Amino acid sequence: MKKEIIPKAVLAQYDLGKIKHLIPLTSGLIHKTFLLETHRGQYIMQELHPLLCSEGVGKDAVHVTTHLLAKGFRSSEIIKTRLGKIHARLGERAWRLQTKLPGKTFDRLTGVSMAAQAGEIFGAFHLAMADLKSPFHSTLVLHQTQKVYEKFLRTINAYASDSCAGAVKEEIHLLKKEMSHYLLPRTLPLRVIHGDPKISNILFIRGRAAAIIDLDTCSRMPVLVELGDAFRSWCGKQEDDPHNTFSLPLFKAAWQGYQKGAAGFLTKQERSLVVRAVGTIILELAARFLTDYFDDSYFGWDKKRYPSRRAHNLARCRGQLKEFVDYKKKIAQMKKVVG
Q1: Model-level pTM greater than 0.85?
Q2: 202-205 and 32-38 as β-strands: parallel, antiparallel, unpaired?
Q3: CA–CA dist 60, 89 (Å, integer)
Q4: Which residues in 206-215 are b (16+ Cβ under 10 Å) and which e?
Q5: Rounded Cα distance, 75 and 121, in Å
């Protein structure tokens, strides 16, 4: 290794044998991910975001992976430290080690076939997790749209006189106009969802979806937030694309795949709200990005393409709002697809 990208004091907490390679992988918005190759095999090591490194989150990840494996659903296994801990810690930082599954990840969908495969494996995942009985230890719950909206309103009020507020008047206006109309009913059943269904969290082997990775964001939520997030990301372009659109052909393929994998999993009410949920999550994410545009503290950012986290978050917000405008034009066609 040319440089110590993971501290030796962290690696020493595991019984790994001789390390041959340690390679940084493409970073997501939250964790830093590395491929670790030893004489005993290949592993994935992640330096966890501070909000996702609690013991509760770690216990939930172990519980989810154990349940999936028992159901015959392919999953990585979390490797504990020499002392039997889920996380390796060094000061306030934490790492997690997992077995590496075969397969390839993609940052974007390559076509309708991949969309159908993505939909099918998430449908199968929801079915596999449907009989998980025990509660989640973690108190972190994603996709609480009402709370995201309320925080967004508090934030823009707090920064109303700040110089950076002037550049985002149109974005604030659109979110305030639309977001309250896309909140989902609070009476929806709670299901076990993944929480981050982006395409790069699916492993593919020879064109077929083989596994879902990064299971530390699982929680009990309305399944519509999962579907809304999945279709938002799968059917849109890159999040910060200034010309973002929503692809109806990809949506149709992904929905048909989900129907195949989930085999009647959704209730009549859930099915009737699938199309609205896409708009819900597009706006939710736009609000989160704009909130972090002001707070400048949460999301990772691409230092090669943007001068600051704030600049990248603004581009992401605008990209999502572009997708929302195009999505609204296609709502009637989407409803015909869902039936």
Answers
A1: yes
A2: unpaired
A3: 18
A4: eeebbbbbbb
A5: 12
Tokens for 89, please give them: 């810690």
CA atoms within 13 Å, Cβ hemisphere of 107: 8
Ordered DSSP codes for 69-90: HHTT-----EEP-TTS-SSEEE
Helix spans in 94-168 (H): 112-129, 145-158
User: Per residue in 248-276, pLDDT tens?
Assistant: 999 999 999 999 999 989 999 999 999 99
DSSP state of 40: T
Phi then psi for residue 188, to 5 deg, are -70, 145
Cα 180 from Cα 149, distance rounded (Å): 8
Closest CA relative to residue 114, chosen from 193, 192, 200, 28: 200
Closest CA to 55 of 23, 24, 85, 93: 85
Q: β-pairing, 208-212 with 191-193? A: unpaired
- Determine the 3-state secondary structure of 262 from DSSP: helix
Q: Tell me if residue 22 falls in helix, strand or coil.
A: strand
The strand pairing partners of 88, in sequence order, are 95
- Token pair of 314, please? 């603004």
The residue count for the chain: 339
Nearest to 47 by CA among 23, 30, 64, 22: 30
R_g of the chain, CA atoms, integer Å: 20
User: What confidence tier does 138 reach under pLDDT thresholds 50, 70, 90?
Assistant: confident
Region label for 258, one of left (φ > 0), alpha (ψ between -120 and 50) or beta (otherwise) = alpha
Angle at which helix 248-262 crosses helix 331-338, to 10 degrees, equals: 30
Q: What are the beta bridge partners of residue 236?
A: 246
Over the stretch 182-240, which tens digit does the pLDDT of each residue have?
999 999 999 999 999 999 999 999 999 999 998 988 999 999 999 999 999 999 999 99
Nearest alpha-carbon partner for 286 in 177, 201, 164: 177
